[in-house]
Amino acid sequence: MAQPTTLRLEISPEDSARLLRLAAVAGPSPRRPTTRRLAVTYFDTPDRQLRSAGVVLEIRRSGRRHVQIVRVAGTMVDGERINRDWENPLATAEPDPSAVDDIDLRRLITPLPGLRLEPVLRLDLRRISRRLMPAEDQEILVTVHTGEAEDGTAVPAFCEVVLTLRAGPPVLLFDLARAIHTEIPLRVATEPFERRAL
């Protein structure tokens, strides 16, 4: 069985600042954490064609830069279960299925005749990333996403913590999660926030 390289957790948004000050998260790190503000818009058809297919289509805007992201997890395509991600830059904030080179993903996000992609959720997202290097040949990327809906949608504010193993044994992720949990209550997220909100 493959060992996990990513652990996705949830904490209360009120605890996000305290999380970054915890000794287990504050260091040792070779550089200061990076912070980005993102405007994220998720798209689907009026009848939720993408959601039914297990597909997430989002446009992320940072400054004047737009990136289209397609995520598929466990979707059956021609009898094969696929797990894929695709990213590509866009000139505008409108989704463009034709810009996706992966044929399967392009087909999954192309609306059926008579339908069109429309915004279904807009988030104001703050992303903080910090690299931890607890020992030689060990590295964990800690990414903290805090966000809330921009358009009054009935989606609660959230804080998602993603621990990604870059180098070292997978037990490092669980050790870090336990160290966090001794200070801040956390939950294991079984799927990304957007899959539950859309």
Write a brief structural summary.
The chain is an alpha+beta fold and 198 residues long.
Low-confidence stretches: none
Most strands sheet: 9 strands, antiparallel
Give the termini separation. 31 Å
Q: What would the average pLDDT be, to the nearest integer?
A: 85
Order of helices and strands: EHHEHEEEHEEEHEH
Please report the number of helical segments: 6
Structural class category: alpha+beta
Strand content: 35-45%
Helix share, percent: 10-25%
Sheet with the most strands: spatial strand order: 5-4-3-2-6-7-8-1-9
Radius of gyration: 18 Å
Number of strand segments: 9
Which geometry do the CA atoms define? globular
Characterization of this structure:
The structure is a single chain. Strand 4 (65-77) and strand 5 (80-90) form a beta hairpin. A 9-stranded antiparallel β-sheet has the order 5-4-3-2-6-7-8-1-9. The chain is an alpha+beta fold. It is built from 6 helices and 9 strands; from the N terminus they run E-H-H-E-H-E-E-E-H-E-E-E-H-E-H.
Draw up the topology in text.
Elements: E1 6-11, H1 16-21, H2 23-26, E2 34-44, H3 49-52, E3 55-62, E4 65-77, E5 80-90, H4 103-109, E6 118-132, E7 139-149, E8 158-167, H5 171-181, E9 187-188, H6 193-197
Antiparallel strand pairs: 1-8, 1-9, 2-3, 2-6, 3-4, 4-5, 6-7, 7-8
